[in-house]
Amino acid sequence: MPRSGFSNSMMMTFPPFGGMVRKLIYANLAVYFGLLLLGWVAPGVAGDILRLGALTPAMVTRGALWQILTYSFLHVGIWSILFNMLSLWFVGAYMEAAYGTRWITELYFISVIGAALATIAVSYTGIFHLTPMATTFGPMGGIFGLLAAFAVRMGDQQFLLFPLPISIRAKYLVLIYILIAVASLMQGPSGFAYLAYLGGALFGYLYAKQAPRRGFAFAASERIYGTRNAYYRWKRKRAARKFEVYMRQHKRDTNPGAAGRYTDPNKDRDPNDRRWMH
Protein backbone atom coordinates (compact mmCIF):
# COMPACT_ATOMS: atom_id res chain seq x y z
CA MET A 1 0.00 0.00 0.00
CA PRO A 2 1.23 3.52 -0.66
CA ARG A 3 2.81 5.04 2.43
CA SER A 4 1.67 8.56 1.63
CA GLY A 5 -1.91 7.95 2.65
CA PHE A 6 -3.53 9.05 -0.60
CA SER A 7 -7.31 8.75 -0.63
CA ASN A 8 -9.52 8.03 -3.59
CA SER A 9 -10.61 11.65 -3.84
CA MET A 10 -10.00 13.79 -6.91
CA MET A 11 -6.44 15.01 -7.27
CA MET A 12 -6.84 18.80 -7.59
CA THR A 13 -3.71 20.05 -5.79
CA PHE A 14 -0.17 20.36 -7.09
CA PRO A 15 2.07 17.46 -6.05
CA PRO A 16 5.41 18.08 -4.29
CA PHE A 17 8.28 19.13 -6.51
CA GLY A 18 11.41 17.36 -5.36
CA GLY A 19 13.42 14.15 -5.35
CA MET A 20 14.21 12.27 -8.55
CA VAL A 21 11.30 13.82 -10.42
CA ARG A 22 12.76 17.30 -9.95
CA LYS A 23 16.19 16.09 -11.12
CA LEU A 24 14.68 14.52 -14.23
CA ILE A 25 12.77 17.69 -15.06
CA TYR A 26 15.86 19.86 -14.56
CA ALA A 27 17.91 17.50 -16.76
CA ASN A 28 15.33 17.63 -19.55
CA LEU A 29 15.06 21.41 -19.36
CA ALA A 30 18.84 21.80 -19.37
CA VAL A 31 19.19 19.66 -22.50
CA TYR A 32 16.31 21.44 -24.25
CA PHE A 33 17.50 24.98 -23.61
CA GLY A 34 21.13 23.98 -24.17
CA LEU A 35 20.30 22.68 -27.63
CA LEU A 36 18.09 25.71 -28.25
CA LEU A 37 20.99 28.06 -27.57
CA LEU A 38 23.38 25.87 -29.52
CA GLY A 39 21.01 26.04 -32.45
CA TRP A 40 21.56 29.82 -32.59
CA VAL A 41 25.35 29.56 -32.35
CA ALA A 42 26.06 26.39 -34.31
CA PRO A 43 22.89 24.95 -35.88
CA GLY A 44 24.84 22.22 -37.64
CA VAL A 45 26.26 20.92 -34.36
CA ALA A 46 22.85 21.05 -32.70
CA GLY A 47 21.38 19.08 -35.59
CA ASP A 48 24.12 16.47 -35.30
CA ILE A 49 23.48 16.08 -31.58
CA LEU A 50 19.77 15.57 -32.21
CA ARG A 51 20.51 13.04 -34.93
CA LEU A 52 23.00 11.09 -32.83
CA GLY A 53 21.00 11.28 -29.61
CA ALA A 54 17.55 10.38 -30.97
CA LEU A 55 16.49 6.75 -31.19
CA THR A 56 17.00 5.29 -34.65
CA PRO A 57 16.80 1.46 -34.51
CA ALA A 58 19.10 0.97 -37.50
CA MET A 59 21.79 3.09 -35.82
CA VAL A 60 21.44 1.27 -32.50
CA THR A 61 21.96 -2.11 -34.12
CA ARG A 62 25.10 -0.71 -35.75
CA GLY A 63 26.57 0.32 -32.40
CA ALA A 64 24.88 3.54 -31.23
CA LEU A 65 23.79 1.92 -27.97
CA TRP A 66 23.69 5.22 -26.08
CA GLN A 67 20.52 6.11 -27.97
CA ILE A 68 18.41 3.75 -25.86
CA LEU A 69 18.79 6.32 -23.07
CA THR A 70 19.69 9.66 -24.65
CA TYR A 71 16.53 9.81 -26.79
CA SER A 72 14.44 10.35 -23.67
CA PHE A 73 16.10 13.73 -22.96
CA LEU A 74 15.48 15.26 -26.39
CA HIS A 75 12.55 17.54 -27.24
CA VAL A 76 11.52 19.68 -30.17
CA GLY A 77 9.03 22.46 -29.47
CA ILE A 78 8.11 24.34 -26.32
CA TRP A 79 4.63 22.83 -26.12
CA SER A 80 6.07 19.32 -26.31
CA ILE A 81 8.45 19.79 -23.40
CA LEU A 82 5.84 21.71 -21.40
CA PHE A 83 3.28 18.91 -21.68
CA ASN A 84 5.87 16.19 -21.06
CA MET A 85 7.33 17.83 -17.98
CA LEU A 86 3.93 18.55 -16.48
CA SER A 87 2.96 14.91 -17.03
CA LEU A 88 6.23 13.73 -15.48
CA TRP A 89 5.75 16.05 -12.52
CA PHE A 90 2.15 15.15 -11.75
CA VAL A 91 2.39 11.38 -12.15
CA GLY A 92 5.98 10.90 -11.04
CA ALA A 93 5.71 13.03 -7.90
CA TYR A 94 2.72 11.12 -6.57
CA MET A 95 4.45 7.80 -7.26
CA GLU A 96 7.69 8.94 -5.66
CA ALA A 97 5.87 10.16 -2.55
CA ALA A 98 4.14 6.81 -2.28
CA TYR A 99 6.98 4.40 -3.09
CA GLY A 100 10.24 6.28 -2.66
CA THR A 101 13.03 7.67 -4.81
CA ARG A 102 14.78 4.36 -5.49
CA TRP A 103 11.59 2.72 -6.71
CA ILE A 104 10.55 5.58 -9.00
CA THR A 105 14.07 5.87 -10.44
CA GLU A 106 14.14 2.20 -11.39
CA LEU A 107 10.63 2.37 -12.78
CA TYR A 108 11.34 5.39 -14.97
CA PHE A 109 14.62 4.23 -16.49
CA ILE A 110 13.47 0.62 -16.95
CA SER A 111 10.46 2.03 -18.82
CA VAL A 112 12.68 4.32 -20.94
CA ILE A 113 15.10 1.53 -21.87
CA GLY A 114 12.33 -1.02 -22.28
CA ALA A 115 10.47 1.36 -24.59
CA ALA A 116 13.60 1.73 -26.73
CA LEU A 117 14.18 -2.01 -26.93
CA ALA A 118 10.54 -2.66 -27.83
CA THR A 119 10.69 0.04 -30.50
CA ILE A 120 13.82 -1.48 -32.01
CA ALA A 121 12.42 -5.01 -32.01
CA VAL A 122 9.04 -4.11 -33.52
CA SER A 123 10.52 -1.78 -36.12
CA TYR A 124 12.32 -4.70 -37.75
CA THR A 125 9.11 -6.71 -38.14
CA GLY A 126 7.73 -4.29 -40.74
CA ILE A 127 4.32 -4.30 -39.05
CA PHE A 128 2.16 -1.27 -39.93
CA HIS A 129 4.84 -0.39 -42.53
CA LEU A 130 7.25 0.64 -39.79
CA THR A 131 10.94 0.84 -40.60
CA PRO A 132 14.13 0.76 -38.48
CA MET A 133 15.29 3.89 -40.31
CA ALA A 134 12.61 5.98 -38.57
CA THR A 135 13.54 8.18 -35.60
CA THR A 136 11.85 9.00 -32.33
CA PHE A 137 12.73 10.95 -29.19
CA GLY A 138 11.19 12.29 -26.01
CA PRO A 139 10.44 10.96 -22.51
CA MET A 140 6.99 9.55 -23.22
CA GLY A 141 8.23 5.97 -22.92
CA GLY A 142 9.21 6.68 -19.32
CA ILE A 143 6.06 8.71 -18.66
CA PHE A 144 3.81 5.95 -20.02
CA GLY A 145 5.70 3.55 -17.78
CA LEU A 146 4.81 5.76 -14.82
CA LEU A 147 1.19 5.90 -15.97
CA ALA A 148 0.95 2.12 -16.30
CA ALA A 149 2.49 1.63 -12.84
CA PHE A 150 0.11 4.25 -11.44
CA ALA A 151 -2.84 2.34 -12.90
CA VAL A 152 -1.59 -0.89 -11.30
CA ARG A 153 -0.72 0.47 -7.87
CA MET A 154 -3.10 3.43 -7.47
CA GLY A 155 -5.73 2.76 -10.11
CA ASP A 156 -8.74 3.83 -8.04
CA GLN A 157 -7.40 7.34 -7.55
CA GLN A 158 -9.79 9.91 -9.02
CA PHE A 159 -8.59 12.53 -11.53
CA LEU A 160 -10.42 15.65 -12.65
CA LEU A 161 -10.56 15.96 -16.44
CA PHE A 162 -9.68 19.64 -16.72
CA PRO A 163 -11.36 21.77 -18.01
CA LEU A 164 -14.40 19.46 -17.86
CA PRO A 165 -16.03 19.00 -14.43
CA ILE A 166 -15.74 15.23 -14.80
CA SER A 167 -13.75 12.84 -12.65
CA ILE A 168 -12.35 9.49 -13.77
CA ARG A 169 -10.36 6.75 -12.10
CA ALA A 170 -6.67 6.58 -12.96
CA LYS A 171 -6.82 3.07 -14.43
CA TYR A 172 -9.51 4.10 -16.91
CA LEU A 173 -7.68 7.29 -17.85
CA VAL A 174 -4.49 5.33 -18.52
CA LEU A 175 -6.44 2.82 -20.58
CA ILE A 176 -7.76 5.67 -22.73
CA TYR A 177 -4.21 6.94 -23.29
CA ILE A 178 -3.03 3.48 -24.30
CA LEU A 179 -5.92 2.99 -26.73
CA ILE A 180 -5.13 6.36 -28.33
CA ALA A 181 -1.49 5.28 -28.69
CA VAL A 182 -2.53 1.98 -30.29
CA ALA A 183 -4.82 3.76 -32.74
CA SER A 184 -2.05 6.24 -33.61
CA LEU A 185 0.45 3.42 -34.13
CA MET A 186 -1.86 1.72 -36.62
CA GLN A 187 -1.71 4.79 -38.86
CA GLY A 188 1.59 3.53 -40.25
CA PRO A 189 5.01 5.21 -40.36
CA SER A 190 3.59 8.46 -38.98
CA GLY A 191 2.77 6.62 -35.76
CA PHE A 192 6.30 5.33 -35.20
CA ALA A 193 6.79 7.38 -32.01
CA TYR A 194 3.87 5.60 -30.34
CA LEU A 195 5.88 2.38 -30.29
CA ALA A 196 7.92 3.90 -27.46
CA TYR A 197 4.74 4.94 -25.65
CA LEU A 198 3.38 1.40 -25.68
CA GLY A 199 6.76 -0.18 -24.94
CA GLY A 200 7.16 2.06 -21.92
CA ALA A 201 3.66 1.22 -20.71
CA LEU A 202 4.42 -2.51 -21.03
CA PHE A 203 7.63 -2.34 -19.02
CA GLY A 204 6.06 0.00 -16.46
CA TYR A 205 3.23 -2.47 -15.98
CA LEU A 206 5.64 -5.40 -15.58
CA TYR A 207 7.78 -3.47 -13.12
CA ALA A 208 4.78 -2.47 -10.99
CA LYS A 209 3.67 -6.10 -10.90
CA GLN A 210 7.03 -7.70 -10.16
CA ALA A 211 9.23 -5.16 -8.36
CA PRO A 212 9.87 -5.55 -4.60
CA ARG A 213 8.69 -2.78 -2.30
CA ARG A 214 12.10 -1.07 -2.35
CA GLY A 215 13.05 -1.91 -5.91
CA PHE A 216 15.21 -4.52 -7.60
CA ALA A 217 18.52 -2.80 -6.78
CA PHE A 218 17.82 -2.86 -3.05
CA ALA A 219 16.68 -6.48 -3.21
CA ALA A 220 19.82 -7.42 -5.17
CA SER A 221 22.09 -5.65 -2.68
CA GLU A 222 20.31 -7.40 0.19
CA ARG A 223 20.85 -10.74 -1.54
CA ILE A 224 24.52 -9.94 -2.14
CA TYR A 225 25.06 -8.95 1.48
CA GLY A 226 23.14 -12.01 2.64
CA THR A 227 25.32 -14.25 0.48
CA ARG A 228 28.46 -12.55 1.76
CA ASN A 229 27.37 -12.92 5.38
CA ALA A 230 26.50 -16.57 4.79
CA TYR A 231 29.99 -17.11 3.37
CA TYR A 232 31.60 -15.49 6.40
CA ARG A 233 29.47 -17.64 8.73
CA TRP A 234 30.58 -20.74 6.83
CA LYS A 235 34.25 -19.68 7.17
CA ARG A 236 33.83 -19.15 10.91
CA LYS A 237 32.22 -22.55 11.33
CA ARG A 238 34.97 -24.21 9.32
CA ALA A 239 37.61 -22.47 11.40
CA ALA A 240 35.80 -23.54 14.59
CA ARG A 241 35.78 -27.19 13.44
CA LYS A 242 39.51 -27.04 12.69
CA PHE A 243 40.08 -25.47 16.10
CA GLU A 244 38.13 -28.25 17.81
CA VAL A 245 40.21 -30.88 16.04
CA TYR A 246 43.40 -29.07 17.04
CA MET A 247 42.33 -28.79 20.66
CA ARG A 248 41.28 -32.43 20.87
CA GLN A 249 44.69 -33.47 19.56
CA HIS A 250 46.22 -31.66 22.54
CA LYS A 251 43.60 -32.97 24.94
CA ARG A 252 42.23 -29.58 25.79
CA ASP A 253 38.68 -28.58 26.69
CA THR A 254 36.92 -26.97 23.71
CA ASN A 255 33.43 -26.58 25.17
CA PRO A 256 32.09 -23.10 24.51
CA GLY A 257 31.15 -20.95 27.44
CA ALA A 258 27.80 -19.34 28.13
CA ALA A 259 28.54 -16.61 25.63
CA GLY A 260 29.38 -19.14 22.92
CA ARG A 261 33.14 -18.58 23.14
CA TYR A 262 35.70 -21.35 23.50
CA THR A 263 37.62 -21.81 26.70
CA ASP A 264 40.98 -20.09 26.70
CA PRO A 265 43.56 -22.85 26.27
CA ASN A 266 46.06 -20.87 28.35
CA LYS A 267 43.73 -20.61 31.32
CA ASP A 268 45.01 -22.45 34.41
CA ARG A 269 47.89 -24.00 32.46
CA ASP A 270 51.24 -24.96 33.94
CA PRO A 271 53.68 -22.07 33.39
CA ASN A 272 56.34 -24.64 32.57
CA ASP A 273 54.18 -26.26 29.87
CA ARG A 274 55.83 -25.17 26.61
CA ARG A 275 53.25 -26.81 24.27
CA TRP A 276 51.28 -23.59 23.88
CA MET A 277 54.28 -21.41 23.10
CA HIS A 278 54.52 -20.25 19.49
Topology (elements, then pairings):
Layout: E1 10-11, H1 19-41, H2 43-53, H3 57-60, H4 67-70, H5 78-99, H6 101-123, H7 140-154, E2 158-160, E3 167-169, H8 170-185, H9 194-210, H10 216-249
Parallel strand pairs: 1-2
Antiparallel strand pairs: 2-3
Helix pairs in contact: 1-2, 1-5, 5-6, 5-7, 6-7, 6-9, 7-8, 7-9, 8-9
Quaternary organisation: single chain
- Low-pLDDT runs: 1-11
Query: How many domains, as an integer?
Result: 2
Strand order of the largest sheet: 1-2-3
Rg estimate, integer Å = 29 Å
Give the helix proportion (percent range): 55-70%
Q: In the CATH hierarchy, what is the architecture of the largest domain at level 2? A: Up-down Bundle
Strand content: under 5%
The description of the largest β-sheet is: 3 strands, mixed
Class per helix and strand makeup: mainly alpha
Beta strand count:
3
And the CATH topology of the largest domain? Rhomboid-like fold
Mean pLDDT: 81
The CATH superfamily label of the largest domain reads Rhomboid-like
Number of helices: 10
Specify the overall morphology: extended
The span between the termini is: 61 Å
